[in-house]
Specification:
globular, Isopropylmalate Dehydrogenase, ten-stranded mixed beta sheet, about 350 residues, binds nicotinamide-adenine-dinucleotide, alpha/beta, 2 domains
């Protein structure tokens, strides 16, 4: 069995971290009896340089016909100042829209070996923190009507519109409830239903969908309280499901309590099994090409790919456990070495994780 994977290495540290993630994927495939056909395509700054646009049609077509897409990162100083639709980052928005990926999943997990890297006190972290944020990705205020009135007058004003349809809320709520069945069975829906009409609809629809999942517990929380509770008592959360705007803010907050941007994977999913998997960090031009980048976020993104797109949950766990063991043995890239341990480069960290996969 072979899975077709579109590989978008992108810019900056993208190629370095993706190379290590592919080495880990290959090791897992060899061990568990499946393989991969990788199709490397251009997106971001490298695509602008090669063909004048951040998301060439060939890239989107290849992605559409794949089982999953693996992305490094895009952007960098070379392409700053380009007009809106021509930036490397607009390629990212374009591929998410083109593949109809409406849910962004971001786990925030604290690894025992890296507890000291978290800005939270040990008694707040407790045994563990393991939160999965489901952010709606293609609706809400980022896509609603916007504009200005009275330009150039004393009364000049600007507006953005938060709009959600029943169908848009239903589909992300369903994804969250399905995932909760595979975890601890608790969904917290975050809204601002005491003020916003769009949030009132959000809450009504989430409650309606929850009736299809009688074994899952559902909590509702206002976004201002959720921002506070993530710091005060993050262990009360398992799955958080929320709108595009609230999810943008809360998923950054949740990820920062884990300590390092170099550790955090993400998945973007739609209605089928096709998904886009990428680290949450950017192209880190300050350390690109120096063998300093932490490849773990991208390696953990491949674990999400195995779990959500390829139906290989056991192989996903194999990768996650290999990462844990390498950290427990004390190996660290520069971004997490403040938590103590032995400093290694990008390639060595990848090699150590491949070895753990092979030996497990
Ligand atoms: P960044 O995430 O690239 O870097 C922020 C800081 O974190 C830097 O000091 C960097 O060295 C460090 N860092 C990031 N990833 C790391 C890793 N894996 N290992 C070790 N250290 C790491 O954010 P930025 O500097 O704001 O953005 C740089 C470029 O990336 C910009 O062009 C931005 O638009 C782009 N960007 C792309 C994406 C994406 O492709 N999804 C996301 C965010 C930013």
């Amino acid at each position: 069995m072979k899975y077709k994977i579109t590989v978008l290495k992108g810019d900056g540290i993208g190629p370095e971290v993706v190379d290590q993630a592919i080495a880990v994927l290959n090791a897992v495939g060899e061990k568990n009896g499946f393989g991969f056909d990788y199709h490397e395509e251009l997106m971001g700054g490298c695509a602008i340089d090669a063909c004048g646009e951040p998301l060439p049609q060939a890239t989107l077509q290849m992605a559409k016909s794949s089982d999953a897409v693996l992305l490094g990162a895009v952007g960098g100083p070379k392409w700053e100042g380009l007009p809106g639709g021509k930036t490397p980052e607009s390629g990212l928005l374009g591929i998410r829209a083109g593949l109809e990926l409406y849910a962004n999943l971001r786990p925030a997990v604290i690894y025992q070996a890296l507890r000291d890297a978290s800005p939270l006190k040990s008694e707040i972290i407790g045994d563990n923190i393991d939160i999965l944020v489901f952010r709606e990705l293609t609706g809400g205020i980022y896509f609603g009507e916007r504009g200005r009135t009275g330009a150039g007058t004393a009364g000049e004003a600007a507006y953005d519109t938060e709009r959600y349809s029943v169908g848009e809320v239903e589909r992300i709520a369903r994804l969250a409830f399905e995932a909760a069945g595979r975890r601890s069975g608790l969904v917290t829906s975050v809204d601002k239903a005491n003020v916003l009409e769009s949030s009132k609809l959000w809450r009504e629809v989430v409650i309606k969908v929850s009736k299809e999942y009688p074994d899952i517990r559902l909590n509702h929380m206002y976004v201002d309280n959720a921002a506070m509770q993530l710091i005060r008592n993050p262990r009360q959360f398992d799955i958080i499901v929320t709108s595009n705007l609230f999810g943008d803010i809360l998923s950054d907050e949740a990820s920062m309590i884990t300590g390092s941007i170099g550790m955090l994977p993400s998945a973007s999913l739609g209605s089928g099994t096709l998904g886009l998997y990428e680290p949450i960090h950017g192209s880190a031009p300050d350390i690109a090409g120096q063998d300093k980048a932490n490849p773990i976020a991208t390696i953990l993104s491949t674990a999400m790919m195995l779990r959500y797109s390829l139906g290989q949950a056991a192989s996903a766990e194999l990768i996650e456990n290999a990462v844990k063991r390498v950290l427990e043995k004390g190996f660290r890239t520069g971004d997490i070495v403040s938590a103590g341990g032995q400093a290694v480069g990008t390639r060595e960290m990848g090699r150590l994780i491949v070895e753990e996969v092979k030996n497990s």
